[in-house]
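Weekly structure sync, notes
Attendees: PL (lead), two postdocs, one rotation student
Agenda item 3: pending single-chain targets
PL asked that the sequence for the first pending target be pasted directly into the notes so everyone works from the same version. It is reproduced below exactly as submitted, 50 residues in total.
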Amino acid sequence: MQIRVYENKKVLSNGATLSREVPIEKFKEEHISKPFNPIIANMFYRAGYK
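Predicted structure, written out during the meeting:
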């Protein structure tokens, strides 16, 4: 996990890959979440990114 903080933006990146069970096309549809990093996923969920 890498976090870069700039004056006008924040960039988060990691080496995780997308799940074959939930391809990117289905992200906006209802699906079961299987986060690679549940702690970071929970942080974004609690911040309102659902």
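Discussion points:
- Helices lie at 38-46.
- The longest strand covers residues 2-5.
Action: rotation student to compare against the earlier draft before next sync.
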